[in-house]
Amino acid sequence: MLSCRSYQMPKSLAEALALWRGAPEGSRLIAGATDILPWAREGRAGDVEIDTLIDLSRVAELSGYQQKDGRIRLGANVVWQDFLTDPVLARSLPCMPFCSVWFADDQIRQQATLAGNLVNASPAADGTPPVIALNGDIEIARLDGDTVVTRTMPVADFISGPGRTDLKPGEIVVAVTVDALPGYGGSYQKVGQRRSLVISSVCCAAVVKTDPSGKVFEDVRLALGGVGPKPMRLTETEAMLRGKAISADLIERASAGPVDLVASRTRVDYRRTVVRGFVRAAVEDALAHAAQSAQSEEKETANA
Amino acid sequence: MPELELNFEVNGRTVAKRINPGLRLLDVLRDDLNMTGTKEGCGAGECGTCSVFVDGKLVKSCLMPAAKAEGTRIETVEGLARPGDLTVIQRAFYKTGASQCGYCIPGMVMAATSALRDNPDAGHEEIKERMGGNICRCTGYTKIIEAVELARDVIAGRMSPAALEADAVGESYIGNSVRRIDAPAKVAGRLKYAGDMIMPDMLHMAVLRSPHPHAEIVSMDTSAARAMPGVECVITSEDVPGVDGFGVFVHDQPIMARGKVRYVGEAVAAVAATDERSARRALAGIKVTYRELPGLFDAADALAPGAPVLHDYAPDNIVKHIPLRKGNIEAGFAAADLILEENFSTQQVEHAYLEPEAGIAYVDHDDVVTVISPSQNITHHRHMLAAIIDRPIQKVRFIMSPVGGGFGGKEDMIYQGMLALAAMQTHKPVRIVFTREESIVSTAKRHPSRSKVRMGLTRAGRITAMEFDMLSDGGAYGMSSEGVMRKAAILSCGPYEIDNLKVDTTVVYTNNTPSGAFRSFGGMQVQFATESMVDMAAEKLGLDPFEIRRRNMMKPGSLTHTQQKLGTASLGMVLDAAEKGSRWEAGAPTVRGATRGDTHGAGTREPCKLGERFAAGPETKERVA
Question: Do residues B60 and B130 both lie within one domain?
C-alpha cells in the first residue's frame, strides 16, 4: 500500500524541476504510475510511505511530439497507446505499434509512458530494444540556478544495467528522440509467461528497408532484450544483411550469430533457441511489412 | 492526516472530496463514493476488474493515483446505462450467460464497451485482443466474447434487438437456453459481494501472518499495537473462549496460530481498527518472538523415520490413508501379457477466483454472532464456530454472500473465526478484505501429488489388474484432505471395469501451504495418471486410443472400483461424441507419420497472436500500420 505526505502535479517543467530539487529524501517522480503502485505491495516493497510524489503527467512541455530533420522528439508523457492510435507515429516508427500491442494491455497502455519504461531500465523492458533500433536519444533536464538546462545521450548509454541509469539527482527525463523511418517495415517479437501483462522473457525489435525492387536490404536495424543485463543492438547481424540480396539462406545464416550474445543467468538454452528464431522471424516479418509500407507510400504519392 | 482536494466528474455528477493523497482512484470510487461496481481483484493491474473510463479512455483504477482524477470525467459501470436499465452490451452478457460468479463482469463490460467504442466492427480475434487486460476464471471466455459479438451486431443493426431477449422455452427448461436470474445485477455492477458491504461503525481488520514455515511462538506482545490510534482491538489465539479448531474432516487448525506456526502466511494475530491503513500500520506494533523449527517441505520426507512432527495427534504425519482392494491383484498381473509401470506427478495449483476472500461479522441486538462471507459451507462453519466461541448454535449465524468464484477454495473457515472474535470484543461490525497476495499465500491449494501406477493388460487390450499408489502433500493443516483422498481413490483407475485392484491414496502433513478442496477434488491428479497409462498401453499394443477405452469401459452392470453395481453408464456415448467431435483419425498412436489431419480446422483454436487491429477493415475509419 502506497502512502504519501504530499502529491504534487506541476504544470510546467520549471515548476517540476524546482519541486524535485527541493523534494525531501525518499520522494519520487511518477508519470503513468503503473509501476509504482504494484511495487508498493506485499512481496515487493510492501507498505511504502513516500514523502512527496511528483506527478509529471500534467507538465505541458512533456506532452505530445514534434517532427524535425528526420527525427521525432517524443515528449516524456507520450503513452504506449499513442503508438497504436496516432497515425503519424505508427507510420514513422514502424516497429512501435507491434511493440505496443504486446506491451501490457489496452488499459495500462493509456497510462504507461515510453519514457517511464526506459527509466525503469528493466533488462526485460519491452520498450528499450525498439528505441535502440531507432537510434533513440534521451533528453534530460535539470535546473542550473533558475535556468532549465538539458543534456542528451543515447538511450543505449543511458541504461547502464538492470534498474540502473545515468539519471542524476534533480534530473528529469523530458523526451526521447528517435529516427523517423517511414517506408521501413517494422516488427516486434516477444515471448513472456502469457500474452497480456507480462514483461518479455526475450524480445526482438526490427526495422527494415529494401531497395525499390524489394530484392536488396537497404537498411536493417535489430535489437534484442531480455537476454542480458541491458538490451543490445545487433550491429554485426545488421552488417551481414545491409546491402545484400534478400534470401532465406542469408537470413538463416545471419540469425545464427546473435545466439552467442545470450548472457542471461537463467533459461539460457531456451533463450538461445528463441533468439535464433526471433531474429529470423523479426527480419522476415519486417520485410513483409516493408512491402506493405512501400505499397501504401506509393498510393499516397499517387493520390498527392 | 494530509489531505488533497479533488474535483472531478463521475457519471455526469460533479464530485468534490478531500482525500488522503496516497489513495488510488479505485479507493475513492469504492470507499468514498460507495460505487462498488468497480471491483478490486488484484490491486496490481493484472485482472481488469477495476477498469473505468477516464476522459473516455479505459484505465485500471487500481493503477491510478486518485489525484490524477483532478478535473477529469470518470465513467464507471454504474454510469453506462440509466438506473434500472441495461446497455446493449450488458443485455448481451445477460443473454449469452457470460456472467457466472460475476466478479470480473463489471470490468469485462467496461472492456467490451471500450473495444466496441474504439472499433464498432471489431472481429472475434480483435475483441479478444482488446479485452486481453481482463481475467475471468469461470467462463473460459467463450460466452463473454460471444456476448460482445452479439452486442456488436445488434448495435450495428445486423441483428434484431430481439436477439437479446430470452429464448422461448417450450415444455421443459432442459435442453433450452435460459438466462440467469442473477445476471442483471452482475452486469450492472449492482450485486454486493462481501467486500462491497458496509455497516455503520464498521471496523477494518488486518492480519499479522507468519514469516516462518515452522516455528514455536516464544512470546507475543500486542501492547504497542493496542495503543496505536484507531486500533479498537488486537486478537490472538489467547482470546478464543471455546474449543479452538476447525477443518472439514479433522479440526486441527486454530483460528490463529496457537503456540506454533506451521506455514508461511498462517494467521498469528489480527487487528481491528477504524480504517484499513491504521489496521495495517498496527501490525508492525505486534512483537512476536519465534524459535524456528526444522520443517517438512516434501511429502516423502514427512514419512521418513525421525521426521519432524507437525501435529501431536499425528506422530506419523499422516492426515489420511485410503486403501481400496478388489479381486486378486497377484492373479490379475499373472494373467497379463503386458505390464506397464510409470510415475506421475502433479503440482500445487491456486484457485485464483477473482474475488479475494472478504467478510463482515457483527453481534446483533439479540447477541447473535453473525458472519457474512462467501463461504462455500456455511452450515458446517456455523457449527464449528459455535464450539470455537463457546456459544449455543442459535446464537451463531452465517450468511452466505455472493461468491465471486470459489472452485473449492472458499470451503475452509480460515478468517471467519477472527472476524467473529473481533466483533465480539468490540461489539462493532468488523470487515476484512484480503489482498490478492494474502489470498494466495494463506488459502488452500490443489494437492500436489506423486503417483506410482502399474497396469497389466492382455494382448487384446483388456486391463487385468491395476496398482495405484498416490502420495499427496496436504500442507500444514488437514482441511479437505481426507475427502480429496477418498475421491482420488474412488476415481483412481478411471471409468474402466477392472477386476483386480490395489489402490492406496495417502496425504501427509508438511510445512507447505495447506492443500484443500479444488474442483474435481482429487479426481484430476489420478485421471491424469490413469488416462496417460491407457494411452501408453494403446501405443504398446497398437490399438486406437478410443478402441482400448471401449474394450475396458464400465457398462450397465459393471462393478465400480468400490464394488457398486452400475445401473447405467454413459462412457460409450461420451467416447462416440468425442471421437466424432474431434474428427479423430482412427488408428493406433504408432501408425501416423509426423503430421495428422485432425489437429487443425473447425473447432480447433489457432495459436495466440496479436495485432488483429492492424488489419484495416473496409468500414473502419482511422486504422494504423
Answer: no
Q: Do B45 and A102 touch (CB under 8 A)?
A: no
- What DSSP string describes A141-202? EEEETTEEEEEEEEHHHHEEETTEES--TT-EEEEEEEE--TT-EEEEEEE-SSSSS---SE
Question: Domain spanning A185-303: which CATH class is it, in words?
Answer: alpha beta
What is the complex's ipTM, to 2 decimals? Answer: 0.96
pLDDT at residue A192 in the model: 86
> Taking CB atoms and an 8 Å cutoff, what residues of chain A touch B610?
101-102, 195
Instruction: State the smallest CA–CA distance between residue A13 and chain B in angstroms.
Output: 17
In a domain, B567, yes or no: no
- pTM beyond 0.90, yes or no: yes
- For chain A positions 75-104, those within 8 Å of chain B (CB to CB) are 81, 84-87, 90-91, 94, 97-98, 101-102, 104
List C-alpha distances in Å: B64 to A110, A192, B80: 11, 25, 21
Are domains A60-179 and A185-303 of this chain identical in fold?
no
Q: Is A290 left (phi over 0), alpha (psi -120 to 50) or beta?
A: alpha
User: Taking CB atoms and an 8 Å cutoff, what residues of chain A touch B206?
Assistant: none
pLDDT at B62: 98
- Dump pLDDT digits (tens) for B97-118: 999 999 999 999 999 999 999 9
Please check whether residue B522 is in contact with residue B553, taking contact to mean a CB–CB distance below 8 angstroms: no
Q: Judge whether A26 is closer than 8 Å to chain B, CB to CB.
A: no
Closest CB from A6, A32, A97 relative to B624:
A97
B96 with B65, same domain: the answer is no
pLDDT tens digits for A2-24? 999 999 999 999 999 999 999 99
Domain that holds residue B66: 4-79
H/E stretch holding B43: none
To the nearest whole angstrom, how far is the Cα of A171 from the nearest Cα of chain B? 22
- Contact: B57, A97; criterion CB under 8 Å: no
Contact criterion met (CB below 8 Å) for B246 and B544: no
**CA angle A235-A237-A241, nearest 5°?**
115
Classify domain A2-55 at the CATH class level: alpha beta
Which residues on neighbouring strands pair with residue B344, listed in sequence order?
B451
Q: Which of B191, B222, B245 is the last residue of a domain?
A: B191
Q: Which of B371, B366, B358, B479 has the alpha carbon at shortest distance from B421?
A: B371
**Which residues make beta-bridge pairs with B107?**
none
Do the domain assignments include residue B28? yes
**pLDDT score, position B616:** 52
A13-67: pLDDT as tens digits: 999 999 999 999 999 999 999 999 999 999 999 999 999 999 999 999 999 999 9
Q: Are residues B149 and B73 in the same domain?
A: no
Residues of chain B with pLDDT under 50: 617-625
CATH class of A60-179: alpha beta
Q: How many domains does chain B have?
A: 2
CB contact under 8 A, B51 and A30: no
Q: Say how far apart CA A158 and CA A174 lie, in whole Å.
A: 14
Across the range A215-228, mean pLDDT stands at 96
A236-257: pLDDT as tens digits: 999 999 999 999 999 999 999 9
pLDDT for A304 equals 62
Of A192 and A92, more confident: A92
Q: Which of B31, B63, B350 has the most A C-beta neighbours within 10 Å, making it the best mutation to test the interface with A?
A: B63
**Residue B269 domain-assigned?**
no
B38 & B69 share domain: yes
Question: Minimal Cα–Cα distance from A199 to chain B, Å?
Answer: 12
Give the A:B interface size as CB pairs under 8 Å: 133
- The end-to-end CA distance of chain A, in Å, is 56
Provide the terminal-to-terminal Cα distance of chain B, rounded to the nearest Å: 49
Inspect the interface and report whether the beta carbons of A105 and B437 lie closer than 8 Å: no
